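hey so u asked for the seq, here:
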Amino acid sequence: MNTTIESTYRPYDVSHSAEGSMTLQFKGRMDASNAARMIEGVKSLFANQLPSSLTVDLGKVTYLDDFGTLVLIELRDLMAKGNVTFHLKNANDNVQDVLSILKFDTLETRVSRVGKRSFNMFTRLGEAVFGHLADLNFIFSFIGSVCLSFLYVCLHPKSLRAEDTLSSMEKTGVDALPIVGLISFLLGLIMAFMSSVQLRQFGANIYVASLVGLAMVRELGPIMTAIIVAGRSGSAFAAEIGTMKISEEVDALFTMGFDPTRFLVVPKIVASIIVVPFLTLFSDLLAIVGGLVVGVSMLDLTANAYISQTLKTLTLFDVFWGFLKSGVFAFLIALVGCLRGFQVSGGAAAVGQATTSAVVSSIFLIILTDSIFAIILRYWS
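ran it, structure tokens below
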């Protein structure tokens, strides 16, 4: 037979059964105004002994907020420490909605997992493997989305956001001209100076022009330009999209009916593919100018002889080959930058990590792709 004991603390009633179980019935409002007193009251109630099971009756609760939910969480955790069965009953629709929004049921599982988490080597290895598999799945999904977006843009050219594309072309190409030009000029200067030390011993000063021109147009020009663009624009793409992701602007675009990939990614990739090859040609030109300065000032070559030797060495295929590689590098840089941006989750620290990852991944793919191009060129020619 059940006996009801009216608690001196008004917001709840307590009922005991002969089997040792207990029913705790809250009533009225469970909010910030009385949550602290409720927690103090229930802790004092179970200070001496825990029941065999506890049922919390929410049938008379008229209002519940996150502070009231905290009372239930404290009560549940207290029972969990004593291995006491805990149940909720008679919660109305409003109370159920609050508990669902605050993920009351899921929170219990998360807390218990954190407490029992193992940090041995095999656990970390397994987590890393599953994490990389999840990343791989996201990468394939993202690439598929990009391909579908490009297909849609090809079929509907007016859907390409021309204004954003031009803005990205300006930021990626025009704004990068000073730093690309300076680094390329100095690189050509250094290459010409270092090679002249050796070639001058054999009276082959004129071949400094051949060395600088061929090395820059085929290899160093595309690579150096791509690395600079990865550091400037690839990181900017990741930071921009990552910031939009954590501020839920990407979700807002999706809610409004826009395809985030077509809206954000396609203009950046198109802009990069267009401007980076021309940026590479500008880099090649400035590097040749740097070599020309050394040739005229240190090797007693005339400007006409240096330029003639450069044109004699280079072929249209060499220029096209560097142009092609630059386009591929540009695609990889923009794709990786946008991918890392969409992978951001969490806070501001995640944006910084995505930015760093975008630059590192882009440089790695640039070097890897250039190696593949070198192998293709070796067996092609």
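The chain has a mean pLDDT of 85. The two ends are 96 Å apart (CA to CA).
lmk if thats what u needed
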